[in-house]
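Troubleshooting log. The previous structure file for this entry was overwritten by mistake, so regenerating from the original sequence record. Sequence copied from the archived sheet and checked twice against the printout by T.R.
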Amino acid sequence: MVSGMNEYSFEKLEVYKLAREYRRKIYRLTYKLPKEEQYNLIIQMRKAAVSLTNNIAEGHGRYHYQENIQFLRQSRGSLEELLDDLNVCIDENYADKDYIEGLKQEGYNLLKKINGYIKYLKDRKLSKPINQLTTH
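Regenerated output below.
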């Protein structure tokens, strides 16, 4: 076990592991983009990729299910942004279309995982016992 990582760490979440790997792939792609995109698309894609994993991690650290869900929605939005950025890469012929399409498919699979985790948290929230209200 890695020192400092406890059993409840966000790093143990399957969705985080998948998002982290996806972030790595997006970063690798940005190294191949044209230099003229250095201050535009490259920065945009890197920020969205980092936001993808940061929001999963931050949401995991929140006490309430609803807060965690809100951060996952932010993560989902960053992923959707990346999918559109990949369309820019296709439209501008910045990389091999088949490679980009593969990244897009991987992104859609990750989107399903994020949505599944959101559903899991919603179900957990609903299954929590509701305290009995008493009238005074």
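The chain is about 70% helix and 0% strand. Archived copy saved in two places this time.
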